[in-house]
Design a protein that fits this description.
This protein has 151 residues and is mostly beta strands. 13% of the residues lie in helices and 44% in strands.
């Protein structure tokens, strides 16, 4: 199993000098270094990191990493994502449709993963809990389309 290298999407690369961004990249790199995941090969996988809940906004910010497990560089992707909070099966979380073009994504090499934060509308979560760990969340990708650079 190859090591996953955490990178920033092209649109976020200018932020790498910010201490909070550096810390997040380091923390997520360590998260991947300390775990073995069983990836689906020849596609892009999505690994949930955490969810940060704002009861005032009724928004769960999903932090996750898209991992390139193809044998090729990818430069764009489109997908639909759905999420749930395992301990609150009645909570309703909005779906997310992503369209990440080359201008945003840049080039993600095989065995690289890029971090993405997504705001998801939520109904039915308690205001007391602010952070949901990866083990408390579930997510699924659907309708995945991957773009490769033209040679």
């Amino acid at each position: 199993m190859g090591k996953i290298n955490i990178v920033l999407a092209k649109a976020h690369q200018a932020q790498i000098e910010q201490p909070d961004i550096q810390r997040e990249v380091q923390d997520i790199q360590q998260f991947f270094n300390e775990r073995d995941f069983s990836y689906k090969q020849d596609t892009v996988n999505f690994v949930l990191i955490r969810g940060l809940y704002s009861h005032l906004e009724r928004v769960l910010t999903i932090v996750g990493v898209f991992v390139n497990k193809t044998e090729h560089v990818i430069c764009g992707l489109e997908t639909d994502l759905s999420f749930k909070v395992k301990e609150h099966p009645k909570a309703r979380l909005g779906r997310v449709s992503l369209q990440l073009p080359p201008a945003f994504l840049g080039e993600i090499k095989p065995d690289e993963g890029f971090i993405l934060h997504m705001k998801v509308q939520v109904q039915g979560l308690q205001k007391e809990k602010k952070v949901y760990e990866a083990t408390e969340l579930a997510g699924a990708l659907a309708n995945l389309t991957i773009a490769h650079p033209t040679e």
